[in-house]
Here is the input.
Amino acid sequence: PPGGETLLMLGERVRAATDELAHRHLGEQIVLVAHGGVLDMMYRIATRQAVDAPRTWELANAGINRLLWTPQGLSLVGWSDTRHLGPEWCDESTT
Here is the structure.
């Protein structure tokens, strides 16, 4: 909608929040639970994708995504891991 948050603004908000969390928890593992928009942006940041590039990756419901933060930025360790779920939970045609 007019006056709403742009993709660039969302990307900066996600990057700032990620940096803040990482600085608060240096050397620790943290868990972040988020909706698809934030996860999509974290993937883009970690893989240096443009915010408006077509998505070529999966955003699995209840998937586990692993990222590594360093002062140089985010990097992707693992994405959309659903091995902890049974096959019935991965089939979106039944939901």
Notes: The radius of gyration is 15 Å. The CA atoms of residues 3 and 53 lie 22 Å apart. The helical segments are 7-24, 36-46, 87-90. The chain has a mean pLDDT of 91.
